[in-house]
Q: What sequence folds into this?
């Protein structure tokens, strides 16, 4: 498989992810209507929708209303292409490659939506679980029972943490979306790798939370109208951390649980 073709396929996946990120949280269908400018609503022609290229060709503006196109569009397209190409180097053209790329692209979408909206759309998780189980069944039939058991065990573990956390701290640390996301990750990665992802995510979320709290207390040099970070009580998009950590575990193919065991 030629790398350029893989890169272009990756770019178009990224383009589709951009559509999902905008439409899924707003409950707009991802197939119809055709792509439009979120500001003026004009439907876009094919030459305004070429990944990355159109962004620079249009000089970062909508041709109809002149609103600026955010940088995140080409960045997400490029990131998706990187996943598709790099995973090819990592796994070769194998079943593992197809399954892992699909998983990473779904996790990228989950992370970006959760980061912005603090939700993980059910449609996205359902797509992940159905296609994931389908791919596993098709390519790795002897592992399917283990995968389903891992998914169930992951959901159970996170439900338990959620239940205990709400009881002990009387503060919402995770949501139901995170529980469902755990099932998808467990299905793809297996329970051991899921546990690694879970505690990396917890660590990342904690550092992020404390970091923001510290930043929000800091005085901004431009005066009190400015602030480094919003109020410290804001929620942490834990799903985004969990999704990111699961891709990290997948790439390194190492369970990180051993790091929890204290050794002198
Ligand atoms: Zn426009």
A:
């Amino acid at each position: 498989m030629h790398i350029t073709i893989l890169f272009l396929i990756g770019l178009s996946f990224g383009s589709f992810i951009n559509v999902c990120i905008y439409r899924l949280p707003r409950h707009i269908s991802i197939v119809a209507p055709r792509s439009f400018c979120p500001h003026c609503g004009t439907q876009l022609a094919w030459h305004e929708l070429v990944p990355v290229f159109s962004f620079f060709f249009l000089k970062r503006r909508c041709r109809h209303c002149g609103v600026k196109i955010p940088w995140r569009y080409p960045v997400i397209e490029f990131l998706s292409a990187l996943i598709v190409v790099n995973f090819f180097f990592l796994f070769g053209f194998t079943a593992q490659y197809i399954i892992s790329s699909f998983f990473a692209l779904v996790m990228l979408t989950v992370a970006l939506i959760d980061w912005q909206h603090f939700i993980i759309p059910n449609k996205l998780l359902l797509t992940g679980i159905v296609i994931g189980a389908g791919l596993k069944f098709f390519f790795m039939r002897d592992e399917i029972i283990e995968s389903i058991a891992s998914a169930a065990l992951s959901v159970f573990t996170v439900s338990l943490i959620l239940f205990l956390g709400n009881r002990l701290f009387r503060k919402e640390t995770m949501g139901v979306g995170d529980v469902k996301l755990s099932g998808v990750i467990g299905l793809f990665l297996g329970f051991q790798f899921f546990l690694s992802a879970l505690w990396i995510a917890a660590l990342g979320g904690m550092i992020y939370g404390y970091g923001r709290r510290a930043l929000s207390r800091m005085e901004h040099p431009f005066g009190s109208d400015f602030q480094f970070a919003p109020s410290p009580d804001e929620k942490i998009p834990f799903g985004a951390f969990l999704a990111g950590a699961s891709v990290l575990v997948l790439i390194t193919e190492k369970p990180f649980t051993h790091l929890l065991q204290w050794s002198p």
